[in-house]
Amino acid sequence: MRAPSVMVSSTSMDSVPMVSVSLPMSFQHRALLPGCIHMGLVFLSIAALLVLNTGRVSAETIRMTGMTVDGAVHEVTLDEIDETGTIEEVVYNPYEKGKVRYSGVLLDKLVARFADPSVTTVRMTAIDDYRTVFEKAEWQKFRILFVTRRKGERFGLEKKGPARIVYPDFDAEKEIYQVNLPKWMWMIQEIKFE
Predict the structure, then answer these.
(1) pLDDT score for 104
(2) Fewest beta carbons within 10 Å, which of 37, 109, 115, 154?
(3) HSE toward the beta carbon, residue 76, CA cutoff 13 A
(4) Would you call 40 helix, strand, or coil by DSSP?
(5) Is 60 exceeded by the pLDDT of residue 103?
(6) Which range, of 57-61, 157-161, 167-171, averages the lowest pLDDT?
């Protein structure tokens, strides 16, 4: 089989390079093509989100809206979030099937620092528009960690950053933690206080 040929050309649209890949394939490999095309479209969709949202996506800031401490919209740096008081935990991550060392700020502390005292709901939005909601009763009952470092380091979009939500006390044997699994999230871009 011949090696793939790659051609890169420039376009006039903000000088975004276009990449064309030609893959010679045998008859047997053509059966795999629909799956490859599907995966390619998934990656293209993520790339398009990154390009279209460049005005609000940052690897170092989180947008805070709604009932913030002063009522204004803020682009808060990860360093400013960490100033709230970080903790470090080794957490079993059920999605990665192993323990990971995370550092960050507990959600109750984050709300106390950046939100109006009357806030009872926190809505988080990820880069792909995945959303989850936390009620005050939840952050009073559970330790919910807003992660700003993974294995001691900042982590960008390529590693599902710049921030995540994890439950440090996750226990697969307890049903309540199974119910909370959809609230684990990554690639967090915005927090809205209500």
Answers:
(1) 97
(2) 37
(3) 26
(4) helix
(5) yes
(6) 57-61
Which conformational region is residue 23 in: left (phi greater than 0), alpha (psi within -120 to 50 degrees), or beta? beta
pLDDT for 142: 95
Tokens of 36: 């490859």
Distance CA 133, CA 33 (A): 39
Label residues 131-160 b or e (16+ Cβ within 10 Å = b): ebebeeebbeebebbbbbbbeeebbebeeb
pLDDT in tens, 1-34: 444 444 444 443 344 444 444 444 444 444 444 5
Residues whose CB falls within 8 Å of the CB of residue 53, separated by 6 or more in sequence, listed in order: 127, 189
User: What pLDDT was estimated at residue 59?
Assistant: 61
For residue 93, what are its two tokens? 């991550």
- Cβ pair 128, 109 in contact under 8 A: no
Do the beta carbons of residue 19 and residue 6 sit within 8 Å? yes
* Whether residue 106 has pLDDT greater than 60: yes
Q: Kindly report the CA angle at 83 between 77 and 87, in degrees rounded to 5? A: 110
What is the C-alpha separation between 49 and 109, in angstroms, rounded?
A: 31
Separation of CA 175 from chain center: 25
59 vs 184: CA distance, rounded Å: 19
Degrees (nearest 5) of the Cα angle 132, 162, 60? 125
* The two three-digit tokens of residue 79, written as one number: 């360093």
